[in-house]
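Why this split exists: single-chain examples teach little about how molecules sit against one another. For that reason, every record in the complexes split bundles all components of an assembly together and asks for one structure covering all of them. Below is a record exactly as it appears in the raw files.
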Amino acid sequence: MATTQLMIQILVEETLFVPVTSIMGLSAWSTMNLNPARTTVIREIAVEDIGGVLGLSMPGAVNLGMASGALAFVDMVGAKSEAFLMAPSCVPSPPFAGMDRIGLSVNAASFTAPPGGKLLVQSLGIGAHTYVDQIS
Amino acid sequence: MSTRSAKTKSTPNNASEIDAIEIRLQGPGATTVGLVDGNGNVLMTRRVVVSGPSDMETKFQMPLSLATTKGKIDAVPMLFHQTSATQVVTIGGKDPAGAAQERQRALKLNATAFGKIKVAAEAAAAQIAETGRFKPAGL
């Protein structure tokens, strides 16, 4: 039984050099081709995040700290089926037949300060990876 | 040619109202894209590192403006640095230089602002190539 091992890894880092009142959420989506003649097993999906946002001068509140957080998922499509799996997962998935494309997405929330407030954020980062086995 | 030379400001927007552009990376590698205003100030950088097979493709969104405490600042997305010479980068479906020119035209930036943005991008690229990171002077 021959196995081809594949992977996708994504890291997105944002560094801001000016005080902001709003930041767009980080996100990225990577895709790669699969061999649909082989059975696909997702061996692992992991997600990490670093950094956070500190809200200053928030109306009615002392300074407010918020973790950025991150969400990652894998989606696969084939001619007759599709699959969706979320991170974290460190055990092999059930086998999927006929998949010809796989995507790994990683996303983090956006933040907006209320009027009068501002956000202190210097650096945010999110990352994810997935390991894929294709078995013939 | 317009005489408008610097940043455009209006009332602060929330994250959902900020314009963004899609950046595509074909192939693995580490890529740094920055947002530069018409005065040549680097407002932010976004570094995307992807690993995988050579046929992989990555997409992400880059804001075209920032909502700051002084108002919305419109800026130009610039490709600062790539570790892989084989990785193809497109910004809004165009090559990075073409996308930057189109954004500069949309913001009606003059030749002086164009020059400042180019100098800022080249300085950032040199710093990233040497140290792996970008840090504006004075920070």
